[in-house]
Amino acid sequence: MDILHNRKSSSMTNKEFFIQTWQSEMKKTAGAVKALPRDMSKLSYRCDGKARSAAEIIGHMLPHAESICKATTSFVAAETTGKTYNSIEDAATYFETYATRLVEKLQATDDTIWNEKVIDFRLDGNKLFAYPMRDMFWMMMFDIIHHRGQLSTYYRQMGVRNPSIYGPTAEDMEVMMAGKN
Where would I find the H helices in the chain? Predict the structure, then answer.
């Protein structure tokens, strides 16, 4: 809800709205990463044989921030598969660094570039598609949110508490309800 409450005016540009939404959503994503188990071996959990493990999910979604940050000047969103982290702290720091840099770079990006400059998306060096920067960055942010949602179903199975993303968790509600008795 903070996106709606912080909205400056109806004259906000698409880029300004993206930055505002990015800052809100990436704060939630960083919190979700920090809530993962400290024991990295627990990140091998996967809910199904076809599903990605928790480690694979963060290895896929967190690099989106780096690739689009770099794409603000290279105009290529270059990703590789299988990024790994030595610790949850390393993963969170890596993500927060690029999420913050992206905001700084976008604030210095001309609206015409934001709206019209085509960004190539490459995976392991292979061009898969291309979209205007605006569309590419929104898509990448939504992909992070999508994978964060997948990850949110893994926490309890990995032995840790779910983080609060958009509202209270079951544990938060239990505490609140216990306080009303």
Answer: 2-6, 14-34, 54-61, 63-74, 88-107, 111-116, 133-152, 170-180
User: In CATH, what number is assigned to the domain containing residue 150?
Assistant: 1.20.120.450
- Strand duo 76-79 + 126-132: pairing: unpaired
| pLDDT digits 0-9 by tens, 76-96 | 999 988 899 999 999 999 999
First-to-last CA distance in the chain?
29
Contact 176, 168 (CB under 8 A): yes
Residue range 18-73, pLDDT digits in tens: 999 999 999 999 999 999 999 999 999 999 999 999 999 999 999 999 999 999 99
In a domain, 1, yes or no: no
Q: What angle do CA 127, 33, 88 make, to 5 degrees?
A: 95
HSE-CB of 19 using CA atoms within 13 angstroms: 18
Biggest alpha carbon distance in the chain? 59
Q: Which residue has tokens 């690099």? A: 63
pLDDT at position 82 is: 86
Q: Crossing angle for the helix pair 133-152 and 63-74, nearest 10 degrees? A: 170
pLDDT digits (tens, 9 = 90+) for 91-126: 999 999 999 999 999 999 999 999 999 999 999 999
- Provide the residue range defining the domain that includes 27: 14-180
